[in-house]
Automatic annotation (TrEMBL):
This is DUF7781 domain-containing protein. Pfam families: DUF7781. Residues 12-183 form the DUF7781 domain. It comes from the Eukaryota.
Amino acid sequence: MDSTVYDQEHSSLEDLYSINWVPKEIILKLRKQVEGYQLGLNFEFNEFQVNAYNTKLVFKPPELDRKWKLICEPNRGDLRLLTKKIPVGQYLNFQVGIGHCFHDHTTGWNWKLTTSLGGDGISQIRKKTLLPILPGFDVRIGWNAEYVLPEIHGGMGTGEPIIGMNLGRLYASFDRVEAILTHTT
C-alpha cells in the first residue's frame, strides 16, 4: 500500500477493504507418532503451479517438550536442525538453525528474528489459526491483515478543508492452508 492510495477519497465501503480468498500455499501434512516422536511428510504446493511443489520429511519430539525439529528436503538436498521459536519479549521470536546442503556440499548456520506485527508504514498482523475438524484431522489457516488506521486532519489557509478525514484501508489474505492428518497408535 502506498501513500497515494491512503490519501484518496473513498467513494464506497467496498473501496475501504480488500480480501484475497485464494491461498498462496496449500500444504498436506501427514503425521505419525513413533515411540514418542513425531515423524511427518509434507507436500507443499505453491500458487497452484503444477511443478511448484516441495516435499519435506520432518522429525521432532512431542509437542509439549519440543525444543527442536529436524527437516529434510530431498528435492533441494537440504538437511536442517532448527530450534523452536524462542520468545524474546512480547512481540519478537528468535530461531537458530544449522544445516547441510548435499547438492552444494556446504554446511552453515542461520538465525532469524521474527514478529507477527510490523510492516512498512502500515500496521500488519500475521497469524495462524488451527481448526480441529475431527480427531486426527486438523486444518491450519495462515492469514495476513494489513491496515491503515483512520486519520482526522485539517488546516486553515493551506488549501485544505478545516476538518478532513481518511477512513483508512484494510487488505486481508489467506496465505496458506494446511490439512494435517495425524495417526496415533
